[in-house]
Amino acid sequence: MAEADASIYAALTAVEEREASDAAALDSLLRGATTPFVIRGLVRDWPLVQAGLRSAAEARGYLVDHARPVPFAVSIGAPGGDGRLFYDAAMQMNFQMAKGKLADIFSGIDANEGRADAPMIYLGSIDVPTHFDGLEADNRLGLGTREPLVSLWIGTPTRIAAHNDFPDNLACCVAGKRRFTLFPPDQFRNLYLGPIDNTPAGRAVSMVDFHAPDLAAHPRFAHALEHALVAELEPGDALFIPSMWWHHVEGLASFNVLMNYWWRETPRFLGQPQDALNHAILSIRDLPAAEKAIWRDLFDHYVFGNGPEATDHIPAGARGVLDPLDAESAGRLRSFLLRTLSR
């Protein structure tokens, strides 16, 4: 795996470290948090973490012992590559997708361990309840009343381009070592984002190679670095990534495992903002400028402002979706959108 210019990371500000002695303290830290923080050793007592501290092979054996007999999706990069999951010269993915039993995939990692020309092998966003029995129960993290999605990320040395996610995220390093480089949400212009409909994993990613940034092609990236934070996680450490923060992720060891928890503070019946952005590109972006200006005002009025001037003149009980949404009204609105989009 190609090494990054160490000076890039040495110049960055380290993510703040905090402590959480129990579930109540963790809940207090997470409630309303808007900036990243690291908690050292939060899950160090997990059986999976302890297995990984003894050896990567033992961590793999632990996971295989809990795996269900279902196919696991795996990304495979070219032998001797630098671990970067990205685009090729034709803007297609530079890795191949396959499916197999977890034990067979791990056999491939075993067979290539220590080889300079080993292929990149990466299993991303594995839904834990679907793919494992007892793994979450035996390696539990109390998150209060939150109902998170729990996922595993497993692989050889990898580089995941900077991207963001809508939910809040608590990422726990289980085995190996991870480095996260983080940027506030407003830095998207300085990260030179790629396509939003042709992506390595469903989210637009930075086109900048963090191991060899080309500031002639991406001059604003220098400004992004002025706002960047960095965190290196050892087994048992956890990193909180707030909603919409950009993060570039590197697996630095020969074998790396991360378990993460995603949750959103808003009700699940609400839609995904990315869907609204896609729909706006379809229906508004290419309108004449004068018409776009009108729609900008309407969005400010109904969506971003959402003040009493939009509703107070309408009788109570007759405001429809202009009232705060609940599960029933959100469902009706979703059905209406599906009908209109299918015309």
From TrEMBL:
Residues of the JmjC domain: 117-278
Pfam families: Cupin_8
SMART domains in alphabetical order: JmjC
PANTHER family: HYPOXIA-INDUCIBLE FACTOR 1 ALPHA INHIBITOR-RELATED, HYPOXIA-INDUCIBLE FACTOR 1-ALPHA INHIBITOR
Protein name stated in the entry: Cupin-like domain-containing protein
Species per Swiss-Prot/TrEMBL record: Novosphingobium aquae
